[in-house]
Specification:
By secondary structure, this protein is α/β, with parallel strands linked by helices. It folds into three domains: 203 residues, NAD(P)-binding Rossmann-like Domain (Rossmann fold), CATH 3.40.50.720; 163 residues, Dihydrodipicolinate Reductase, domain 2, CATH 3.30.360; 84 residues, 2-Layer Sandwich (Alpha-Beta Plaits). It has 16 helices and 20 strands. The strands form four sheets. Strands 7, 9, 10, 11, 12, 13, 16, 17, 18 and 20 form a ten-stranded mixed β-sheet that branches. The protein has a six-stranded parallel β-sheet with strand order 3-2-1-4-5-6, sandwiched between helices. Helix 3 packs across helix 13, helix 8 packs across helix 9 and helix 15 packs antiparallel against helix 16. The two termini are 23 Å apart. It binds NADP nicotinamide-adenine-dinucleotide phosphate. The site of NADP nicotinamide-adenine-dinucleotide phosphate (NAP) has 25 residues, from helix 3. NADP nicotinamide-adenine-dinucleotide phosphate binds next to helix 3.
C-alpha cells in the first residue's frame, strides 16, 4: 500500500458501611489484604476510622500527570505518597516534595513492602514493563495511565495480576479525564457492544481544528501546538496515529472481550493532509478528523486508526481543539457519546486519582481483585481484512495539466467498479501540475485501492496526495 492509503467524608462513611455489612466483612481470613484486624471489634471501629493509617502509595513519574496527581492528593487523609521516582532528581518541581522520598531508582519503590499501590505515570515500555511485573509479583495494585503498556502487554499483566490477586486500573490510559474505561467495563455491562468510534487524540484534533479555523498549514498548526504544549517535541506518536492505535486497541479488547494485536491495526497518520484537503472537505460538507474505530465484523473485528471525512451534521464533526469524544453503540442502551478533555494535567490526574479511590475502597473487601479484571479472552480475534470493507473515498491527486487526464482517471475507476460522486480540478501550479479532487460513492476498498494503483501508474499522474475514507 502507498502512504496515501492509507474524598472527603463520604468515602469514610462508605468504609464504615462496608465494615457493618455481614456479607462484606471489614476483615476476612480469605482476604488478600488482612489489614487492621483491630477494626474487627465493633467497639474499636470508630477509633479505627479515626486513627486508620493512610494507604501507602508509590508514584512513578512526576511530569505532567504525576504533578497533577501530587496536587490532588496533597491534602487527602486517605493516602500517603511515600515515594516519587523520577529520571532526574535535580530538576526543580512544581509541587512540595518535602514529605516524599524522591528517587531515581524506581525499583526501590516497587520493592518497598510498605507500598500498597503503585501509580505509574512515567510512560513508555522500558523499564516500565519490568517495573510493573515486579510490582504485581510483590502483590501491589497498579494504577497506570500508560496506553502503550496496556495495549502491548495488558493481557500478560492482567494474567499475572489475576494470579497474584491484585488489580490493575488504567482509566487514564484512554480519553484522559473522560470516564470511558469504567463506562465500557461496568456501566455498559448489560450490552453487547457493536462499535466504538471517536476522536481519541487531542493533539491531532487541535492541529486539524487550527488548520480549518485559522487556515494554517499542517507544519504551522503543529508548530503552534508544540509552542502551546499540546504536542511533543517529537510528534510522531500523535500525528502518525500510533497513540490512537494503542487506545482503540484497548477499547476494542474491552468492548469485544478479545485480545487485539496493536501492530495489526490499520493505521494512517495526518501528516499528508493539506490546507487544500481541509478546504475541500468543507466544500463537500465534511470535516477531517482522526478517528479510532472498532466494530464487530463477521468472525472478525474491524479495528482502525485513520483520518476520515466526517459529515458536518455528525456530532464528532463539531468536536474542536484538544477535546476527545467517543460513540459507543450498545444492544440495550443504543448510542452513547462521551465528550471531554482527552489529556492535560488535571483531567488526566482526575482519572488516575479516581482509580486510586476506587481501589482504596475495594481494598477493604475480600477478594475484590477479580471484579476489576477486564474479561478478555487471550485468544486473539482475527482482524477483518481492511480491503473487504466498503467506504466512500476522498482522493487528492497531482496530475499533469494535459488533455486526457480526467478520462484516464475515470477509466481506471470504472474498470474497478468504483463510481464517482464528484470530480473537481483546482488550479494549475507554476510547474504545470494540476490538483484533482475525487469523491467516490461507497465502493469495496480493495477495488478503490486497485483503481488508485492504476491511476498512480498513469503517465499523466504525478502523485496521489491523500486518500481518506468517509465516515458513515
Ligand atoms: N500528558 C497527558 O495529558 C496524558 C494524558 C493521558 C495519558 N498520559 C500518559 O501518562 C503517562 C505520563 O505522561 P506525562 O505527560 O506526565 O509524561 P512526562 O511529562 O514526560 O513525565 C514523565 C515522568 O516520568 C519520569 N520518568 C520517565 N522515565 C522514568 C524512569 N525510567 N524512571 C523514573 N522516572 C521516569 C520523568 O522523570 P523526569 O521528570 O526526571 O524527566 C517524568 O517525571 C504516559 O504514559 C502518557 O501516555 C498522559
Amino acid at each position: 500500500m502507498g502512504e496515501w492509503e492509507c474524598g472527603g467524608m463520604g468515602e469514610w462513611r462508605q468504609w464504615l458501611f462496608i465494615s457493618h455489612s455481614p456479607a462484606l466483612p471489614f476483615f476476612s481470613s480469605h482476604s488478600p489484604f488482612p489489614r487492621r484486624p483491630f477494626a474487627r471489634n465493633p467497639a474499636n471501629r470508630i477509633l479505627s476510622l479515626i486513627t486508620m493509617a493512610k494507604i501507602s502509595v508509590g508514584l512513578l513519574g512526576l511530569g505532567t500527570v504525576g504533578t497533577g496527581v501530587v496536587k490532588l492528593l496533597a491534602d487527602d487523609p486517605r493516602f500517603k505518597i511515600k515515594w516519587v521516582a523520577v529520571r532526574d532528581k535535580t530538576k526543580l518541581r512544581a509541587v512540595d516534595l518535602s514529605a516524599i522520598r524522591v528517587t531515581d531508582k524506581p525499583f526501590d519503590v516497587v520493592n518497598d513492602p510498605e507500598v500498597e499501590i503503585v501509580i505509574e505515570v512515567a510512560g513508555g515500555i522500558s523499564p516500565i514493563y519490568e517495573l510493573m511485573k515486579t510490582a504485581v509479583e510483590q502483590g501491589k495494585h497498579i494504577v497506570t495511565a500508560n496506553k502503550e503498556l496496556i495495549a502491548r502487554h495488558g493481557l500478560e499483566i492482567f494474567k499475572l495480576a489475576h494470579r497474584q490477586n491484585v488489580t490493575v486500573l488504567f482509566e487514564a490510559a484512554v480519553g484522559g479525564g473522560i470516564p470511558l474505561i469504567s463506562t465500557i467495563q461496568r456501566g455498559l455491562q448489560a450490552n453487547e457492544i457493536s462499535s466504538v468510534a471517536g476522536i481519541l487524540n487531542g493533539t491531532t484534533n487541535y492541529i486539524l481544528t487550527a488548520m480549518e479555523e485559522r487556515g494554517q498549514t499542517f507544519a504551522e498548526a503543529l508548530a503552534e501546538a508544540q509552542r502551546l504544549g499540546f504536542a511533543e517535541a517529537d510528534p510522531a506518536n500523535d500525528v502518525e496515529a500510533f497513540d490512537v492505535a494503542y487506545k482503540i486497541t484497548i477499547l476494542a479488547s474491552l468492548a469485544f472481550g478479545r485480545f487485539v494485536d496493536v501492530d495489526s491495526v490499520q493505521r494512517q497518520g495526518i501528516t499528508r493532509i493539506t490546507d487544500t484537503d481541509i478546504r475541500m472537505a468543507r466544500e463537500f460538507g465534511y470535516r477531517i478528523k482522526l478517528i479510532g474505530m472498532a466494530r464487530r465484523g463477521e468472525g472478525c473485528l474491524d479495528v482502525r486508526a485513520h483520518p476520515m471525512m466526517v459529515p458536518l451534521h455528525h456530532p464528532l464533526a463539531s468536536v474542536e481543539g484538544a477535546s476527545n469524544a467517543i460513540f459507543i453503540s450498545g444492544s440495550a442502551v443504543g448510542e452513547v457519546m462521551l465528550l471531554g478533555p482527552g489529556a492535560g494535567q488535571m483531567p488526566t490526574a482526575s482519572a488516575v486519582v479516581g482509580d486510586l479511590i476506587n481501589l482504596a475502597s475495594a481494598l477493604r473487601l475480600p477478594d475484590f481483585a477479580p471484579y476489576f479484571q477486564p474479561a478478555i479472552d487471550e485468544h486473539q480475534s482475527p482482524l477483518c481484512p481492511v480491503e473487504d470493507n466498503e467506504s466512500a473515498f476522498y482522493v487528492r491527486l497531482e496530475t499533469e495539466d494535459t488533455p486526457g487526464v480526467i478520462g484516464n482517471i475515470g477509466h481506471a475507476l470504472g474498470g474497478h467498479a468504483v463510481s464517482l460522486h464528484s470530480l473537481l480540478q483546482r488550479g494549475v501550479m507554476a510547474d504545470g501540475a494540476a490538483t484533482v479532487i475525487l469523491l467516490t460513492h461507497r465502493a469495496n476498498e480493495r477495488n478503490v485501492f486497485r483503481a488508485l494503483k492504476e491511476i498512480e501508474a498513469q503517465a499523466t499522474t504525478r502523485q496521489i496526495g491523500v486518500a481518506l475514507r468517509v465516515y458513515q
